[in-house]
Write a structure and sequence with these properties.
- Two copies of one chain form a homodimer.
- By secondary structure, the first copy, chain A, is mostly helical.
- Chain A is built from nine helices and three strands, in the order H-E-H-H-E-E-H-H-H-H-H-H.
- In chain A, a hairpin with a 3-residue loop joins strand 2 (about 65) and strand 3 (about 70-75).
- In chain A, about 35% of the residues are buried.
- Chains A and B meet through helix 3, helix 4 and helix 7 of A and helix 3, helix 4 and helix 7 of B.
- Chain A binds a DNA duplex through helix 3.
DNA sequence: TTTTCACATATTGTCGACAATCGGAGTTGC
DNA sequence: GCAACTCCGATTGTCGACAATATGTGAAAA
């Protein structure tokens, strides 16, 4: 369903995928140096495919590369995240507006069911908070699909969602915004069901702004704790 | 000034750059197969750096790659361009709104001077229509810079502008929209000068919509001529 | 004639080794 | 004590050769 299913293609694709997963989950710390030889051996492949994977991750903005120096895991500082959420607000707002006119009734129904399953997971509170988080990305991606805009889907899916997941893992410990977020999701779906694109866009923008404020506060607390 | 200045770094960067240029200018036709060995020899390098360059171009959406099959120049069909312009409208609209609050007076003045030089070029009509086109991209990029959003600048600069340039070269023969476009540019700058972000966004969105309509008609004519 | 299969060729994927470049330890001079 | 310089180790950049896979051709069978 989601675009980041484990690929079985070339070694470069596998390496790219495993690296992305390690970066997103924090297994590889932000700013950490990525040694080609070491990673190649760990993955049981030569340096060629690994270098191609690094180029790919560079395109996805998950690593920063400097010629003749090497690659490092990207650092998600406040400014970067702020920029990310601003872009997301514009893109996902647009996705919502268009999806309101292009999604089928079936797709909207499936969106409702998705939220139902999220609600059950929240009520169970089975400790697995993060899986609900991944579900949240499912929700957003389904709306992007509803826009029928392939470029938009690619941008949100292949790049931004990875950065978002990274951010989520980083701040997942003290994540308590699941309740209000679910309510906002429901409102968005209802706006879509009524084919009210302008409202759907506005609700999505507010939803993302709210998420950013929540994240921003967490970062502030972290910074203060670190100081 | 623009992000596509000739790099002097690794061979992979050079290859990526030369390939991007060839693709954008149409020297490499849309959908054309890209043979690694042939290109490597033409550029006087091994296949390793060239493969890395292809990975990079894949990330920029200038080529489509299929594992074990090869890479092809992307095909800009109507749907792809429609998607591109829709995304651009959202992103550049956002850039305008934010730039209205963040650009310095100096930067806005430089924008005015840029438009003055464009006007002179148009009046001269020195055959070099395309150079005005590149200037148009300068205009848009300066506004993106004015937003102070690095991610937005990267997205507009490294990916979308390449596709846009490609589209421009393809349809540059019968390009006559320079006049009205310049007027719209001037209106946008005035909105920025008045720090009216909402107006600036609206004007930019209309500007891009107008450009899309113009392009769309050209494609229709081309399709009819081909049929 | 058409379809299908097998083979030959071309192209991509991968590896190991070598060259080029960078960062840091140690030294020297002020 | 501090700055700059030099050398060395480590890491990245590059190449050529080999293996794996796909594509195209031709022959054989229906």
């Amino acid at each position: 369903m989601l675009p980041y299913t484990p690929e079985q293609g070339t070694l470069a694709d596998i390496a790219s995928h495993r690296l992305a997963q390690s970066i997103v989950t924090g297994e590889l710390a932000q700013g950490q140096k990525l040694n080609e030889a070491e990673l190649a051996e760990r993955f049981g492949m030569g340096r060629g495919p690994l270098r191609e994977a690094l180029r790919h991750l560079e395109g996805m903005r998950l690593v920063n590369r400097i010629p003749n120096v090497g690659a490092r895991v990207v650092v998600l500082d406040r400014k970067t995240l702020s920029d990310l959420y601003a872009v997301r607000e514009a893109l996902e707002g647009m996705a919502c507006r268009i999806a309101a006119t292009r999604m089928t009734d079936d797709e909207i129904d499936q969106l409702r069911k998705l939220l139902d399953s999220h609600e059950k997971q929240i009520n169970k509170q089975g400790g697995k908070v993060y899986s609900q988080k991944e579900g949240d990305l499912d929700f957003h991606y389904q709306i992007a699909r509803g826009s029928r805009n392939q470029m938009l889907m690619d941008m949100l899916g292949s790049e931004q969602y990875q950065l978002l997941r990274m951010c989520r893992y980083r701040t997942s410990r003290n994540a308590e915004r699941t309740g209000p977020a679910l309510q906002q999701h429901r409102h968005i779906v209802e706006a879509l069901a009524q084919r009210d694109g302008e409202l759907a866009e506005m609700l999505m923008r507010r939803h993302i702004q709210g998420a950013w404020h929540s994240i921003s506060e967490m970062i502030t607390k972290e910074d203060e704790a670190a100081a």
